[in-house]
Design a protein that fits this description.
- This protein is mostly beta strands.
- Among the domains are: 255 residues, Single-stranded right-handed beta-helix, Pectin lyase-like (Pectate Lyase C-like, 3 Solenoid), CATH 2.160.20.10; 238 residues, Pectate Lyase C-like, CATH 2.160.20.
- It has four helices and 61 strands.
- Strands 33, 35, 38, 42, 45, 48, 50, 52, 53, 55 and 56 form an eleven-stranded mixed sheet that branches. The chain has an eight-stranded parallel β-barrel with strand order 37-40-43-46-49-47-44-41.
- Strand 60 and strand 61 form a beta hairpin.
- The longest helix is centred in the middle third of the chain and has 10 residues.
- The radius of gyration is 26 Å and the shape is globular.
- The N and C termini lie far apart (64 Å).
- Pfam families: Pect-lyase_RHGA_epim.
């Protein structure tokens, strides 16, 4: 590689040796040779810092490195003025939820060292740090007013924490010339000399958020030495799982030749270091200059609207099972995506990657692979490549020949180019190849905007002051986890249509249905809980809605963000959310960063002491929900960063080692997301886990986009099997498992995805996992924890790009005679990787096992009680009488 005219100075440098995944960093490579094991909170920490005295808003001089508290600065931003009314009702007395860093002494003048003050703001109150594992009790929102905050050691973000900057004037976190540590913001501390161990289990790093910041690395040295550890400058160490997000952040990094205090002129700076985890969602990020914009590794992840300007390498991929990159702009970077690394279990490297609706401008070496493999499953669609230096689009690192290229100086729009296992015909046994696919998915105009998939970021209502917001607490509602708030909430919502209604952090008990009128705008903080409780929700045979969004037939606007839908006790009949509203325009009815949690948390009455794993019989008090969310027939909506979790473990018990085995649960929720919408509806970065019958089920749906969806099968199955403990048939097309018999002990398990009688369904990235068989994992070695994950029937226009699975014999199991896809044909290191599965793209409406008007699963019964599947392709399959 040589320097090219018009490109940033210098050439890409390899990432440092410690920036690897958790499989490869425990043998001498882990960045655990430093001396800090937590935040610097005063000048008396191991690393002394010189911090000047300042005055508070009243003019009083205070040494803000100690435990003094300053007066809060005035702000015109509503959250800054109202956030302190939130609480963590199950935390110890005196615990503070809302923390303004200036109250802890941060100055924000760009000169004073604010490290200790900000870390005190985060850590105040004996929060969940090393040895804690996780918590549902000790959450916090840390607010950063406008200003420039100089830091000399990392700001440690504890578990269950939101960092929020002022969206009107985002604050700057600025690294000093003598900075010492892994990153300006660190979400998972490497314990010194602990062979790679960290504070938290990376795949259980839930409930985190960072938004509205400028991260400034421009004054940091190239080589940062702490103890025996040498780091490179880094903005955020982001090692997270579900219910996490980064939004509206700019990373400013040094330009080669302008590096401070360095003997090298080539910058080593990295914007984000994410070595592992199970994310997650990031959006609206900009990376300027530096060596690597994003050093990326995770089981799965969604990244939307990222811009890389003059980074030497935009994205350096460590490993993944699947990652969707949407609306990515790469300007004047030598490399867009370097996928030539190996990491993850079994040295998988980059498992799969979808790059859609993106633009590479003057990128000479766009997507680098390693000659000889393993190769990622790639899907490139609506990717514009142009600019004077663009040439190699997909190539083997170090090789002059390309798999896909553009003539230098010309432009090329790549539509439907794929690499990996593909299955395109109803009789296709599959092949492993690369090149353009035909036919390429044809998105309906309803899902697109200006030829790209429509997307809209979470609203933050930045221009509003506190006087513009309706605070439910001021109307008498309680957020302390007591009483019944249903009636008061309904009264407030009905009288506040069109206004922003704020639910400060806390727990809002409801013993009836919350009715959300069309026109509502509702926002919480740190995932304010709406919790179903009481006899109204107990009857599984008579399900009741907890949170109804619109009434059937309604159309208009609704905006929900930063909420959590939860239950308390034996609420077997609870439907947590029913979505009825039809959006009047794209994105006018939406849900952002809202999550579902059934069990595993304080006061849920569904914790380890109530519902421990291994029960020989189903405990009725642990049957806790019928359905997480129903997107009804007449509705449509935009759903971004949504996690539906029926708890597999208790969040509030210490873990043993690096697993949650000792805290696992038997909690039962019947169904995940039932989607009947006629569209257009978008699901960006959604996950649904551990529900008994299915995670996602689409019935009669149309014009649906599912981007990097993720599922897990309940750990307890097949004990009991999916046919227990819920009554089958209470919701449309409940599966009945007619194909299973008593010899198949892994057959009656929850589907990850069912697509029935639906059209124009676009799945771009799907990670579907079955990790357990009755809480054991021996089945992983033979990929036999479960028989099948995906079922389709009488559906057409089904386009699945980058499907990756674990633990199931069958990857895709269409009814009607189409050949299944098997894991042993598509295994790539740890997971299966299918780049293209489109046999139902241009056909399928008359192929399946579903017979409209008859029983579910598309079966009818003859006089001998045998199950008959209609097979228009080959023959009729007749299964013996089902034995339950």
């Amino acid at each position: 590689m040589v320097e090219l005219q018009g490109m940033p100075p210098g050439l890409p440098s390899p990432p440092p040796s410690y920036m690897v995944d958790n499989q490869g960093n425990t043998f001498g490579a882990a960045p655990d040779k430093g001396v800090l094991n937590g935040p610097v909170t005063s000048i008396f920490n191991d690393l002394n810092r010189t911090i000047s005295n300042v005055t508070d808003a009243a003019g009083k001089t205070l040494d803000h490195t100690l435990n003094s508290v300053l007066n809060r600065r005035a702000s015109g931003y509503w959250l800054a003025e109202m956030g302190d009314q939130g609480q963590m009702p199950y935390a110890p007395s005196g615990y503070k939820f809302f923390r303004d860093v200036t109250e802890y002494g941060a100055v924000g003048d760009g000169i004073t060292d604010d490290t200790a003050a900000m870390n005190r703001a985060v850590s105040d109150g004996d929060r969940c740090g090393e040895g804690c594992g996780s918590t549902s009790v000790l959450g916090a929102l840390v607010y950063f007013p406008p200003g420039t905050y100089l830091v000399t050691t990392p700001i440690i973000q504890y578990y269950y924490t939101q960092f929020v900057g002022n969206p009107q004037d985002p604050p700057t976190i600025k690294g000093s010339t003598n900075f010492s540590g892994i990153a300006l913001i660190d979400t998972d501390v490497y314990i010194p000399k602990a062979n790679g161990d960290e504070w938290y289990i990376n795949q259980n790093q839930f409930y985190r958020q960072i938004r509205n910041f400028i991260i400034d690395l421009t004054q940091m040295p190239n080589d940062i030495v702490q103890g025996d550890q040498t780091y490179v400058p880094c903005g955020i160490h982001w090692q997270v799982a579900q219910a996490t997000s980064l939004q509206n952040i700019v990373f400013n990094m040094p330009v080669s030749g302008q590096v401070v205090n360095s003997g090298s002129n080539s910058t080593k700076a990295v914007g984000i270091f994410q070595e592992n985890g199970s994310g997650g969602f990031v959006s609206d990020l900009t990376f300027n200059y530096g060596n690597i914009g994003y050093r990326a590794g995770s089981q799965q992840m969604t990244a939307r609207n990222l811009v890389f300007n003059s980074c030497l390498t935009a994205v350096s991929s460590i490993w993944n099972w699947g990652w969707v990159w949407q609306s990515i702009t790469v300007n004047n970077c030598y490399q867009a995506f370097d996928c030539s690394n190996f990491g993850g279990i079994d040295g998988q490297g980059t498992g799969s990657m979808s790059i859609i609706d993106s633009h590479f401008n003057s990128v000479p070496y766009a997507i680098a692979l390693t000659a000889g493999g393993p190769y990622p499953a790639l899907y490139l669609d609506n990717l514009l490549v142009d600019g004077p230096n663009s040439h190699q689009i997909v190539f083997y690192s170090g090789h002059a020949d390309s798999l896909l290229e553009v003539t230098q100086g010309d432009s090329l729009t790549v539509n439907g180019w794929a690499m990996g296992h593909r299955f395109q015909d109803i009789n296709d046994e599959g092949n492993n190849t690369h090149g353009y696919i035909s036919p390429n998915p044809k998105r309906p105009s309803s899902l697109n905007s200006n030829n790209n998939l429509f997307a809209v970021s979470r609203p933050q209502y930045a221009s509003l002051g506190s006087g513009d917001v309706v605070n439910v607490l001021s109307k008498g509602v309680k957020n302390d986890g007591t009483g019944d708030q249903t009636s008061l909430i309904n009264s407030i919502l009905s009288s506040s249509v069109g206004s922003l209604v704020f639910f400060p952090a806390g727990v809002y008990i409801v013993k009836g249905t919350v009715e959300v009128p069309v026109g509502s705008k509702i926002v919480g903080s740190a995932w304010s809980q709406i919790m179903a409780s009481g006899s109204y929700f107990e009857d599984e045979t008579d399900p009741k809605v907890m949170f109804r969004v619109g009434k059937p037939g309604d159309s208009g606007t609704v905006e929900l963000s930063d909420l959590m839908f939860t239950v308390q006790g034996a609420t077997a009949g609870a439907i947590l959310v029913e979505w009825n509203v039809k959006a009047t325009s794209q994105g006018s009815a939406g849900m952002w960063d809202c999550h579902f949690r059934v069990g595993g948390a304080a006061k849920s009455r569904l914790q380890f002491k109530d519902c421990p794993k291994g029960a020989s019989d189903v405990d009725p008090k642990c049957i806790a929900a019928s359905l997480l969310m129903h997107v009804t027939k007449q509705s449509s909506g935009y759903f971004e960063n949504i996690w539906g979790w029926t708890a597999d473990h208790d969040l509030d018990l210490p873990v043993e080692g690096n697993t949650t085995t000792s805290t696992q649960l038997n909690v039962y929720a019947g169904r995940g997301f039932l989607i009947e919408s006629q569209g257009p509806s978008w699901f960006y970065g959604s996950s649904v886990e551990h529900n008994v019958l299915y995670q996602y089920q689409l019935v009669g749906a149309k014009d649906i986009y599912l981007g990097c969806m993720q599922t897990e099968t309940p750990y307890f199955q097949p004990n009991p099997p999916a046919t227990k403990p819920f009554t089958i048939g209470k919701f449309t097309e409940d599966p009945t498992y007619p194909m299973c018999d008593s010899s198949q002990d892994n057959c009656e398990e929850a589907y990850a995805l069912r697509i029935l009688n639906s059209t124009d369904i676009f799945v771009y990235g799907a990670g579907l996992y079955s990790f357990f068989f009755d809480f054991t994992q021996g089945c992983l070695t033979t990929e036999s924890c479960q028989q099948r994950l995906v079922e389709t029937s009488y559906s057409q226009g089904v386009w699945v790009l980058n499907l990756f699975t674990k633990g199931a014999i069958e990857v895709a199991s269409p009814l009607g005679g189409i050949l299944p896809v098997y894991s042993n044909d598509t295994q790539e290191q740890y997971t299966t990787e299918v780049s293209v599965w489109t046999p139902l793209g241009d056909t399928g409406a008359d192929i399946g096992g579903y017979v409209p008007g008859n029983s579910s699963d598309g079966v009818t019964t003859d006089g001998n009680n045998t199950y008959v599947f209609i097979d228009p392709i080959k023959s009729t399959w007749v299964y013996p009488k089902l034995i339950l």
